[in-house]
Amino acid sequence: MTEDPAGRLVVTLDLDGVTDKAGLMDRCARDLDLPDWFGRNWDALADSLADPSLWPEGARDRGVVLVVRGWRAYAEERPDEWTVAEEVFAEATDRGPGLFVTLGPG
């Protein structure tokens, strides 16, 4: 894990090869180290992203930048689902102080 110039922890969500919602949820669980009880649905993802108790150690005080990379194939394969995913990322950013989500290389 790295940090940005502002000292926030940078976490990468790698969606390379993901082409459906189930794959997205599995990748979120893996890359974000979400607990086993993570519900693998849109509401659970929004709640998990906005919950500082689920962020990496030290991130609560410093903040988190979540970089979503490899997203373009998913967005092209399932545009309606990708629209929801973008809304979830935006909602989590609005709800979770210190969380920033950005789209990296597609």
From TrEMBL:
Q: Which InterPro entries match?
A: Barstar (IPR000468), Barstar-like_sf (IPR035905)
**Would you say which domain of life the source belongs to?**
Bacteria
Q: Which CDD domains did the record assign?
A: Barstar_evA4336-like
Q: Where is the Barstar (barnase inhibitor) domain?
A: 10-94
The record, for Pfam families, names:
Barstar
The Swiss-Prot or TrEMBL record describes its family as follows: Belongs to the barstar family.
What is the designated name of this protein?
Answer: Barstar family protein
Q: Which organism is it from?
A: Streptomyces plicatus
User: Which lineage ranks, top first, belong to the organism behind this chain?
Assistant: Bacteria, Bacillati, Actinomycetota, Actinomycetes, Kitasatosporales
